[in-house]
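Retro notes - structure team

What went well: the batch runner handled both jobs without manual restarts.
What didn't: labels got mixed up in the shared folder, which is why I'm recording both outputs here explicitly, each with its sequence directly above its tokens.

Job 1
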Amino acid sequence: MKKYFKSFLLVLMANVCIITAHAQDTAVNANTDVMRSNGKIYVVMAVVATIVTGLFAYVYSIDKKISKLENK
């Protein structure tokens, strides 16, 4: 049951991200145009991706430690 809940939650979060990204695609923002022209948008996206990856790794490690303690 827990495995199915995690899968469902992951799919739900992915769908929300896709819908949000699609909704933002129609609006043109002057700030993003400036950042794209300077090439800084890629730096921002790299930093965001690094932070999100680090958070997921941290949560995964905490989950492993908690599971290990629960089994004892």
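Job 2
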Amino acid sequence: MTRFAFLILPLFACVAGCLQAALHPSLHRVDALPPLTIDDASDSLQRAVQRSLDTMAPSRLRGRGPLSRQESLETLSLFLEVLAGASDVETLRAEIERRFDLYAVTDPVLFTGYYQPFLEGSPVPTERFRYPLYRRPPDLPVGRKSPCVMGRLPFGGASRAYYTREEIEQGGVLRGRGLELVYLDSAIERFVLHVQGAGDIRLPDGRVRHVQFDGSNERPYTSVGRILRDSGSLDPDEINLPRIKAYLRSHPGEAEQIMNENERYIFFRESERGAEGVLDTLLTPYRSLATDPRVIPTGTVCYYEVTVPEFDAAGDPAGRAKRTGFAVSQDVGAAIRGPHRVDLYVGRGAQAERLAGHLQTRGRLYILMRKSTGISGSSGGD
């Protein structure tokens, strides 16, 4: 699933087991986590952990690294066992410190948010609904093999170039091939959906269809927020989703050109579930993170501390509140590079859109590994 962080800063799945030695200095050992609260270990966390366990079967994983497939699964299983057996916060904390090695990202981490938008659409083109979402084309090139990825390079690099956004949307190179999945009523909302990677679309008869990321043209990603900032169109403190959308709507003569500067194009499939991350893991609000899998592999148990925006009754920003909690790395993103970038999945609908649209702040990130699983001491393999 792609996401709003792509609008602000500069996608493909990587699996557990690619913790590269070159990035190990970004993590340091700590003796304890910050103080926990009861909300840090809710039922939603257990669901998120179980969802990773359900989808991270060893037969689905490829790649070797300091954290082996089996060790990743054992860490998740042990964490779920600890959660189920803890009667209170202090017991949970003691068991975590007794049974896991704890690491922290050395410097503050930039947190952004992503969400699942709710849009209006039509299964057939009309005067209002004329902006198609495309299915994955059968001639989309398959990326080169990589030891860390299920058949694709983690951050772009197709074996040959596919069509750009402009060639697809204005050039019509996919038109008439039967690839149209659904039609939307706004090119800007379609662009945002491309960035988020999944969404709900209400049809005229009231039915709701869920669409999910199903590949990209693997062209380079260019941040629209950066374009608007560098051109002076928006001040740096104005780079958030509402302001970006408002600018594009109020400058229709520029909007198409600005969006075309981001050549990366997303293809979709219909899904009966919800937003999915790597390995088709169903995402859980506030319990699913997108990380750079070269540093924090998919399936890693994390703990975060961050301040999130609050809103008044009118939906306007009204201060910030501290949020902490355990989460699992279940997604990746082209904007999520290195140890100091994390994307937090915040759910679906208008409230989630507001939060994701304004979440851009520094926080702290910790990771848990079962005892005897060292970051640099394991040989990898099964």
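One thing worth noting from job 2: The mean pLDDT is 84.
We'll revisit the folder naming next retro.
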